[in-house]
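subagent[fold] <- orchestrator: predict structure for attached chain, return tokens only, no commentary.
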Amino acid sequence: MSSEREIKIVVGDDEVSGLLIAPPNARACYVVAHGSAKGMRHHFFKTLADRLAEHEVASLRFQFPYMEYGRDRRDSTQVAQATLRAAVAEARRLVPNLLLIAGGKSFGAQVTAEAQAESPLEGVRGLIFLGFPLHSPKRPSAERAGPLFNVDLPMLFLQGERDKFASPDHLRPLVDQLKPRATLKLFADADHSFHVPAISGRTEDQVMNDLLNTLVAWVEAEIVQ
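subagent[fold] -> orchestrator:
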């Protein structure tokens, strides 16, 4: 298994931590932004990074400043986007020969979409969203869809069918509007964190396998070609 390398990323007057895994035969690197409540060391991101490496896809995950320093409130949009851009720049520096993909989980997915819509992330060839937060829980809508229409890159939405932050009834027609740039994969019985109830007959490991296979196949078809 490829080793995990700890790095530091400078963001203005702050410095945040990052973790890079770069398999020797990788052709692409996924820059992964964490969600609002769980940092880059959460088991979901650790498992994702390790399994991506098995599929010869590199990854660079990183902390937003509020998570790095234990602050109660999430960073402002400006700070969050600046951190993402700094992480992408560090990926370009550390693995200059790899094709770059950006994205992340929930809050990290939203930050990525907004940043790319505002000003393209240098060197990034596509975006992968792990549970895009399309709306607030119990308020199904497409309220956060606006920036996606200004993203001129291939996009992959990996989403649980029971995700309270993205009703399939709103997500499906949105992706249809974004085609051919966008691809949607829904995971039966999975919630926003890709957890599945025992009654479903599926395990979370099976969901992760399905997620990884979908992600890697998309990277090969849309990014590496």
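orchestrator: received. Logging for downstream: The chain has six helices and eight strands. The longest helix spans residues 204-224.
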